[in-house]
Specification:
Elements lengths: L13 H12 L6 H8 L5 H13 L3 E6 L2 E6 L3 H15 L3 H10 L3 H12 L5
Antiparallel strand pairs: 1-2
Helix pairs in contact: 2-3
Length: 125
């Protein structure tokens, strides 16, 4: 569960992120009621349904017929979504080399090892 500020409001987009996280954690499509239960935050059903509709409109989730109800599943997995967001940030900057240099030098030793392994893999894995 995401911590909310003392005044009880989430940051812009945080609720969409929480809903996507619940969908990514699921084994299959979830109905709005199932998402509501997975979040466990006391959100109103209508709020969860509105967020799912917004995510659908943004083409981040698809509706899947579950009997008489619609379930939702994410279009991309969490890793692809994160990679796409990182690429967007990189493409919005003026100096790609500087952005990449700062990103790489801020990596933990474990993340640096993983990045080195991916880069040396030559796309064969």
């Amino acid at each position: 569960m995401v911590q909310r500020p003392a005044h009880g409001r989430r940051a812009s987009g945080a609720l969409e992120g929480e809903v996507l996280a619940a969908l990514w954690a699921a084994d299959g499509p979830l109905t709005p009621a199932q998402v509501q239960a997975a979040l466990g935050t006391g959100l109103a059903y209508n709020t969860v349904h509105t967020i799912l509709t917004r995510l659908y409109d943004k083409r981040l989730v698809v509706r899947v017929r579950e009997g008489a109800r619609s379930g939702y599943r994410p279009v991309k997995d969490a890793a692809q979504d994160a990679a796409d967001r990182m690429r967007t940030v990189l493409e919005s900057g003026r100096d790609r080399a500087e952005i990449l240099q700062r990103f790489v030098t801020a990596l933990s030793p474990d993340d640096e090892r993983v990045l080195r392994a991916v880069l040396s893999d030559d796309g064969q894995g």
